[in-house]
Amino acid sequence: MLANQQAFLSTDQQALEGRMHSDDHDLLRAAEKLAWRDEDDAAALPLPETPQSKGGKLRAERLSPQERVAIAREAANSRWEPAPKAVFGSPDRPIRIGDTKVPCYVLDDGRRVITTAGMTDTLNIARGGSMKKGMSRLELFVSGKLIRSFVSEDLLERVRNPVKFKINRVVAYGFDSDTLIDIAEAVIRADGAGVLQRQQSAIAFQCRLITSSLTRIGLIALIDEATGYQYKRESDELQRILEAYVLPEHRPWTTAIPPDFMKELHRVHGWKHTSNNRGPRYAGTLIRKLIYEKMPSPVLPALDARNPSNEKHRRKYKHHQFLTDKIGLEHFKTQVVSVMTLLRASPDKATFQILLERVFGKQLTLDLGEEKQANSSKAA
After folding, report:
1. 112: which strand partners?
2. What is the distance between the alpha carbons of residues 90 and 88, in angstroms, rounded to a whole number?
3. DSSP, res 156
4. pLDDT for 102
5. For residue range 335-351, what is the model confidence (pLDDT) as tens digits?
6. 45 φ, ψ (degrees, to nearest 5)
7. Which of 327, 326, 322, 320 is nearest to 296 (CA)?
8. Which residue, among 112, 121, 106, has the nearest Cα to 50 in the 3D structure?
9. Which residues pair with 164 in a beta bridge?
């Protein structure tokens, strides 16, 4: 791509323009504008002078006028062709795989992509050497006769057709994160079969480093952290949980905790049970711990916000009146049944605590102590 763009900066450009039709002049100007990016684009995708870019200039100078026109047309079309946009990521926030800095982005359709240069660098594939016309360095490697039998048709197709996307207004190309893992696994299989050449041992070593240090999910997490997408992802996930569990408004009151649950709770703790289910204030806190805190972590804070306590530490509604029917209330009822089973199996509070730890872990401690006097604002 870089060589194509720099083709329009060669010294014989004036001679070329004399041979073009007017529409080709427009194409060339569009391509020149793409090559001479504005400040925003340059900040998004800097183009430092490298040995590869110098070689690109030399190759550009050898292009025929017809080839230059074709490249100009392709560049101009690519400029305006619809493509997903990179919404997270920047060149100065790459991921690190071993000692390699790998540019990566998250697109507006949720795909995590690694740039083509980042992919070849990560796999330790040299950028120099012989090439075949119309074939990228990565495609040349994976379609080679030594490794081809270890590469699936799907993987080869992905390598042949990289993901086209835009960084600001600049067209870029890359591969989804799974492609890196798939190539690494193919190389390892080829190396295990003893078919790789000695000079490819460095690639095999790098592929083992990739697969030993990264899982597919781990690579996605690494990209999300580097690009800052994890915060957007967590926000979206939080919103999905709340939509699944919490209603925007309360429903009419219905009994959600059966009387038998309260009877068993009072019995196990040695409290006097009354017809209105009222006992020590801590009973409400206990229900909060046993039921609501076992739901996904964002649910209880959302319920507290929807149903705040007043100056007398009382709530206008019951928290379960804000739970959705299919998910929130069903989870609530399932948790009630689970705890009631443990209550019925417990002759006393100490046994109940032991059973709770076996089922829910030691983090759920119900030692009352002074908690009997706990503020009723904790009550559900």
Report:
1. 106
2. 7
3. H
4. 93
5. 888 888 999 999 999 99
6. -145, 80
7. 327
8. 121
9. 173
SS3 115: strand
Token pair 């804070």 is at which residue? 301
The token pair that represents 363 in the structure block: 């983090």
Contact 357, 295 (CB under 8 A): no
Bridge partners for 23 per DSSP? none
CA dist., res. 343 & res. 257, Å (int)? 14
Residues 6+ apart with CB under 8 A from 67: none
Hey, what amino acid is at 24? Answer: D
Three-state DSSP state, 345: coil
Q: Of 171, 1, 160, 5, whose CA–CA distance to 84 is shortest?
A: 171
* pTM score of the predicted model: 0.49
pLDDT of res. 231: 83
Contact 265, 286 (CB under 8 A): yes
What mean pLDDT comes out for the span 66-82?
A: 63
CB 336 within 8 A of CB 291: yes
SS3 (DSSP) at 97: strand
Q: What distance in Å separates the CA atoms of residue 320 and residue 295, rounded to the nearest whole number?
A: 12
